[in-house]
Amino acid sequence: MSSNGLHELIRHGGTTDSVQASVNIQVIEVCACPQRVWWVCVALLVWTPHTYSREFTHEDIREAMLSLVHMIRMSEDKLERHEFRERTLGDQLKKMLIGLDKKHRALEPLKGMISRLDDRLSNVETILLQREEREKSSQAKINEALEGIQKALVALAPAPPPPIDLDNNLSANDDAIQRRLDTTDAKIDAVKKEIKTLKNTLNPETFRSMCLEAASDTNPFEKHISEAEKLLNKYETKLSEYNGTKVQTDFVPLNEVSLADEAWHSKMSEVMERQEKEIKKIQQLLSDAESMWKDLPRLGSNNLSVEVCIKVVSDRLVKSNNFSTIDRGKFCYPFNNKYFVFLFCI
Predict the structure, then answer these.
(1) What's the pTM value of the predicted model, to 2 decimals?
(2) Which listed residue, 29, 37, 249, 293, has the most CB atoms within 10 A of its CB?
(3) Which residues form a coiled coil (predicted)?
(4) What distance, in Å, lies between the first and last C-alpha atoms of the chain?
(5) Residue 154: which pLDDT band, with cuts at 50, 70 and 90?
(6) What CA–CA distances, in Å, run from 88 to 74, 80, 96, 314?
(7) 342 pLDDT exceeds 50?
């Protein structure tokens, strides 16, 4: 029952009992709503002296029971909502706790990993420190060795000689230089004579005579070849005669040949073998002679190159005669007899 219904009941002259019942119902309703407790208290204090009691009817009891049922239903709904909220909150908390537990279990191996990493880092630090110490010790040893080497080099190095006063006067060495120049002039004259003789000997006529001599040396080989050809011709004629006689006898078998023919055949085979060996020797001699004949132009070109070289050397020596005495001595000093002998051998 609301406050308006209470006012209507009092205005229509209700009894004190009815008013009290209605007030009690109102109090029960107000208890469901804690915000109106103070207003209910104020209404009771104000309207209690002026109320009149009346008898309770079935309607009042029915309304009070309905209001009580309604209040209970409302409280049940509220409790169900609170239970649902608490249930959902509990489920969420349970899921969160399960997730946290899983994460905690997943993070448990990190402790071992971190401990192993710490051990490895400590091992690496110790290794680096040991390596640094070894490098320092090796560097110290190398420095000591270098210092020892430097000291040894300083100790082994000879002391610098004292300064020598050079004599700029070259008049004392003039006689020795002059004698050396005279000997070199004599050697140059001898070389010039040898060059002239070589020029006279190496002319086209002498070269032609050398070629004729080489050709005459090869003539005996030609004679041997002609004789060998004659012998071969004789053997061919004999073989042809033998073949002719064999044809006339209507191919007599070999087991019926006379002993004289067998001896002749053996002798012929021996002679043929000897002649074959001699022919091989002659072929070898001919190949050697051919190689010598092919080398003759090269020898001629070598002789020409020797002449050119001798001419260049003579020109150099003639040009060197125009130098001063000291320069001539320095330039002509390496040219000795051994040098020119080697040059002519080339």
Answers:
(1) 0.24
(2) 29
(3) 225-292
(4) 153
(5) confident
(6) 21, 12, 12, 126
(7) no
Instruction: Please list, residue by residue across 289-323, b when 16 or more beta carbons sit within 10 angstroms of its beta carbon and e when fewer do.
Output: beeeeeeeeeeeeebeebeeebeebeeebeebeee
Which residues have C-beta within 8 Å of that of residue 218, sequence separation ≥ 6? 289, 293
DSSP 104-146: HHHHHHHHHHHHHHHHHHHHHHHHHHHHHHHHHHHHHHHHHHH
- Say how far apart CA 222 and CA 248 lie, in whole Å: 39
Going from the C-alpha of 178 to that of each of 38, 167, 173, 182, 280, the distances in angstroms are: 154, 20, 9, 6, 66
Return the structure tokens found at 74. Answer: 């409302």
Q: Which long-range contacts (CB under 8 A, 24 or more apart) does 22-27 make?
A: 22/60, 23/47, 23/48, 23/51, 25/1, 25/63, 25/64, 25/67, 26/1, 26/2
Which pLDDT value is given to residue 178?
74
Cβ pair 43, 51 in contact under 8 A: no
Max intra-chain CA distance, the chain: 194
pLDDT tens digits, 161-210: 666 555 455 454 566 677 777 777 787 787 777 777 766 766 666 656 66
d(CA 328, CA 184): 9
Residues written for the chain? 346
DSSP 162: P
